[in-house]
Design goal:
- The protein is built from 13 helices and 14 strands.
- A hairpin with a 2-residue loop joins strand 3 (about 35-40) and strand 4 (about 40-45).
- About 45% of the residues lie in helices and about 20% in strands.
Length: about 425
């Protein structure tokens, strides 16, 4: 819920002693909330900031990360809240909404993931001291933020065939091209069009973080204390990444490190970076799978065709096939799938290419046999298996994986740049002197 743009200062009227009504015993007014920062036409209050601080402290403690000094943690968290605030404002201005029905479904899935009923989940939250109403709004905001990222970064990224081919060429030429890295990352962000003085100030901060690491400080704690990256308060860990999911600057630095070592200061357009190689492992083990050449006839259900009608139609077609009718001819005449023009031919299918219900039925068939009517989310099917083969799909797998990894890397970079520009354009006034 967006707060009013006016300054919201809440006062509590305390007990007025009736026995001796002197001036000193009149109503005492005590300030119980104040503004921490103004962000465009909105504010961050001390109350909501303290709520977020408690959550972050519990998360860090749960991960076994030593808490940085309170003033450092507060500074880091305030920057994160400001970044979230400007994104939520952007979402509101550009029409990104999450209605209550969608929110209810999302919370239902969270409850199911915790193996609880919705009521049980609500009770568990309240027992832990969290308002269910506040939790709902936090989840709503998380969904909105993910949609902002999806629209402004993920959906705007394209990966060309030349990029995939270039990736393979560079990987083949690179030493250790079959390696994945588990990476820790600290970012000291530099504003767009920063002055030389600003750049020097940010560099000094990055060098301070590097010195802490050299003195033996825990990387996760230094991340929580210094980093401007979105995952700073989660210890800065990026997880397992192949070279294609990392900027060239990062992969070159990591290739020179052994597990447990930290890089020197790295400079990119976004700012200054420190990397820790947590671990590395081999990848791209040859993948040989059983592929099935299959075709099918699909009857979709609708308001006009019930489940029973669709199944009955396929049962009749199955009888015709059993009596010698041609599968391809019936598929061209009867199937409601895009493969109908090809006689229902789906080509060679690898595991995972179809929905589970279809794949399970197909895998149970012998070659040159036709299934009974099978239900899937798309409707009712008759499936015929033509042949099977064992196939090395390593190259196809590598290309798909490379495409996904290149896309994710480019989306991450685009999103960081988008947030930085949004933050640079925002009006932010700190009220730390009031705290």
């Amino acid at each position: 819920m967006q707060r009013s743009p006016v300054v919201r200062i809440l006062f509590a009227l305390f007990f007025v002693t009736l026995a001796t009504p002197s001036w000193a015993q009149r109503a005492r007014i005590e300030l119980v909330d104040r503004i921490v920062a103004v962000v465009n036409n909105d504010v961050i209050t001390q109350f909501e900031f303290n709520e977020r601080l408690r959550v972050v402290q519990r998360q860090l403690e749960g991960q076994g990360i030593k808490l940085p000094p309170r003033e450092v943690l507060e500074k880091q968290l305030l920057e994160r809240v400001i970044n979230e605030k400007v994104q939520l404002q952007f979402a509101a201005e550009t029409g990104i909404r999450v209605d209550d029905a969608m929110l209810d479904r999302a919370i239902g899935r969270i409850a199911e993931g915790n193996r609880m009923s919705l009521d049980g989940f609500r009770q568990a939250l309240e027992k832990d001291g969290m308002s269910f109403t506040k939790f709902r709004e936090d989840i709503r905001n998380e969904i909105i933020l993910s949609r902002v990222k999806e629209r402004e970064a993920d959906n705007r990224v394209t990966v060309t065939e030349s990029e995939v081919e270039h990736f393979f060429a560079s990987q083949a030429a690179a030493q250790g091209s079959d390696t994945e890295f588990n990476v820790g990352h600290i970012l000291i962000q530099v504003p767009e069009q920063a002055s030389p003085e600003q750049i020097q100030t940010r560099k000094a901060r990055a060098e301070q973080a590097l010195n802490e690491l050299k003195k033996g400080a825990d990387f996760a704690q230094v991340s929580a204390s210094f980093s401007d990256a979105p995952n700073a308060l989660q210890g800065g860990e990026l997880g397992w990444r192949s070279a294609s999911r990392l900027p060239q600057l990062f992969s070159d630095a990591l290739n020179a490190l052994q597990p447990g070592q930290t890089s020197g200061l790295l400079r990119s357009p976004n700012g200054f970076h420190l990397l820790k190689l947590i671990d590395k492992r081999g990848r791209d083990v040859p993948l040989v799978v059983t592929q099935t050449h299959a075709r099918h006839i699909l009857i979709k259900t609708s308001e006009l065709i019930s489940e029973a009608d669709a199944k009955r139609r396929l049962t009749e077609l199955k009888e015709r096939l059993d009596n010698g009718a041609g599968f391809a001819e019936l598929a061209r005449l009867q199937s409601e799938d895009g493969s109908a023009a090809k006689g229902g031919d789906l080509g060679w299918l690898s595991p995972g290419d179809t929905v589970p219900e279809f794949e399970k039925a197909m895998d149970a068939l012998a070659a040159n046999t036709v299934s009974e009517p099978i239900r899937s989310p798309f409707g009712w099917h008759l499936i015929q298996v033509l042949e099977r083969r064992r196939e090395d799909v390593t190259q196809e797998k590598q290309k798909l994986k490379a495409r996904l990894e290149i896309r994710e890397r480019k989306a991450d970079e685009a999103y960081q740049e988008f947030v930085r520009q949004l933050r640079d354009r925002a009006y932010v006034e700190y009220r730390t002197e009031d705290r």
